[in-house]
Amino acid sequence: MSFLGYVRPDGAVGTRNYVLVIPQGIISKSICDFVAGTKTILTVDHGSGRTANDRETIARILIGLGCNPNVASVIVHAASPGAGYPELYAERLADEIRKSGKHVEVLDPAKDGGTFGAIVKGIQLARQMVYEASTLRREEVGDEHLCLGVKCGYSDTTSGIAGNPAVGYLYDKIVAEGGTAFFGETTEIIGAEQVLAKRAATPQVSQAILNAVLVQESRAKATGLDIRTVNPVPSNIKGGISSLEEKSLGAIHKAGTAPIQGVLRYAERPESSGLYFVDNWMGHLSIFAGYVAAGANIVLFQLGGGGVTGRTLLEGSPSVVAPFLWCTANPKTYAAAKDSIDFYSGTVIEGSETPGEAGERLYRTVVDIASGTLSRSETLNYAEPIDMYLQEPRF
Amino acid sequence: MAAKRALIMHPYDNVATALEEIRAGEEVAIPVVGTALTVQAAEPIPFGFKIALQEIPKGEIIRKYGETIGRAGTNIAKGALVHIHNLEGTRARGDLERRGEG
Three-state DSSP class for B25? Predict the structure, then answer.
C-alpha cells in the first residue's frame, strides 16, 4: 500500500513540509511568529550545567528534528546559552543536519548584527525557504517509508483489551511492509519483559531488553517507595489497573507481534527498518520528541482516559514536526472529546468490530493523515514544550 | 435477564475484565473457547475492573493475559472485585525491598 509524501534528498519521505528553526529562544520564536509554515521547539534545557552524555542527548534531539523527513530545510541560530559547549555549537548541529542533504542556514548574532539583526536575516531566509518548500509536490510512495512512534497514556483496562491491540495491528502491518515502528516506556514493560525478550530478533537484543528493565527496576526499588504510589498513576488505578505488571502486560499490545530488531536510546536513529524498543520514559512531553528525532514521521497517543473526566479538548502536540494522532477505545473518553479524537476502537468492546477490522480502519486513518489530511491536534495553533529525557545530575 | 459481559484475555487467567457496569448478584458470562463460563458477581464490578473467576487464596498468583499481574493480598472469593485492595503488585516494589521482602 502507499501514501502521498515529500521525497527528501536522502530518500526518506516526509508527511509534512516544514521549515524548522532551532534551538529554542527569542530568535527562533520571532522568525516563526513572522513566517508561515515554520516550526520551532519550546524547551527549558539549553545544555547549561549538563553532563557530556546529556548534552549529546540534547544534540541528538536537535540534529534529529532537523534530519526528520517532515522538514524541508533548517535554520540554526547560535544565540542559545548552551552554545558554549562544543556538542551544541550551531555549526556542528548544522553540519550534522546537512548530511541529510538539506539546505541549512546558520544565524550568528555576533556576525549578523546582534539579536535584532539575526532575527531580520532569519525572517528573510525563512520566507525564501518556505517559498522553496512550497514548490515541492507530494508523490505516491510505499508504506516502507512510514516511521511510527506510539505511547499509551491515561491507560485503563480498555487500553489493553481494545485500544493497544488496534495499534498493534497497525504496527504489524507497517513492519510487514518494510516500515519502521518505535515503542518504549521502560518502566511500563516491567512485568512484561520476558514476553518481549522472547520476541527479540537476536540473543543480544533479548539481553538488551532485560538489561533495560533491570536498570529501571533497580532505580525504582532504590526509592524505597511502593511503586503503585508512582506508577500505575492514579488515573490508571481509577480506570481499573491494579499493578504495574498489569499495566505493562496491557501496554505491550501496542507493539504488535513482529520481531524486535533492537533497543535504542532516547532520540537514537535506527540503522535499519522494523520494530524497535526505545529505552525511554513515558512522559508525553518527552517521548514524542524522541521518536520524531529518531525519524518518526507520524506519531500516535493511545488514550485510555477512564480515570479522567471533563477532558472535552485534547490538545497535545509535543511532536514538533510530526502529525500527532489521538486514539482511544474508551466509549466515555470518546463521547467527551469526539472532535479531538482521530481514531476510536471502542467498537471492539461494543462488539461491532473485530480488533482486525478496527486495526485496518486505523491503518487507513494513518495513511490519510500521512498523505496530508490534518490530525485533529494539528487544527489547533498550540505547541507544548519539550521535556528532553536527560538522566544525569545537573551541576 | 441477559447475563452481563466480561472478557477473559487468556484461558489460564483467573480474572476477567467487565465490559459493562455489573451490579452485585448479577450473572456474568465469560466467553471461553469451547465452553460458557458464568460467575455471579459478589459485589459491584465497574466497567473495566476485574472479577475473580474462582476462589483465589491469599498469596496465590493472579493471572491476566496468561501472565502474572500480582498476588492475592487477602483470600479472594469467586465473583469478587479484584483491585488494589486485594491484589499486590510484586515488581519494582521499593517498599518491600526496604522491609527485606523484595
Answer: coil
| ipTM, two decimals | 0.95
B1–chain A nearest CA distance, Å = 19
What's the pLDDT at B6? 94
Judge: A246–B46 Cβ closer than 8 Å, yes or no.
no
Q: What's the domain count of chain B?
A: 1
Given a cut of 60, whether residue A70 has pLDDT beyond it is yes
Name the nearest CA neighbour of A173 among A256, A291, A250, A260: A256
CB A235 within 8 A of CB A219: no
Report chain B residues whose CB lies below 8 A from the CB of A249: 64-65, 67, 69
Cα gap B91→B97, rounded to integer Å: 10
Instruction: For residue range A251-296, list pLDDT tens digits in order.
Output: 999 999 999 999 999 999 999 999 999 999 999 999 999 999 999 9
Label residue A110 left, alpha or beta by phi (over 0 means left) and psi (-120 to 50 means alpha): alpha
Chain A (249-288) residues lying within 8 Å, Cβ to Cβ, of chain B: 249-250
- HSE-CB of A113 using CA atoms within 13 angstroms: 7
pLDDT band at B2 (very low <50, low <70, confident <90, very high): confident
Contact with chain B for residue A333, Cβ under 8 A = no
Which residues are registered as beta bridge partners of B29? Answer: B5, B38
CA distance A303 to A326: 7
What is the overall mean pLDDT for chain A?
95
Question: Which range marks the domain in which residue B63 is found?
Answer: 4-98
Tell whether A384 lies on the interface with B, counting CB pairs under 8 A: no
Give the domain CATH number at B68. Answer: 2.30.130.110
Residues of B in contact with A239 (CB under 8 A): 48
Tell how strand B81-82 and strand B50-52 pair up: antiparallel
CATH of A18-135, one of 3.40.50, 2.60.120, 2.60.40, 1.10.10: 3.40.50
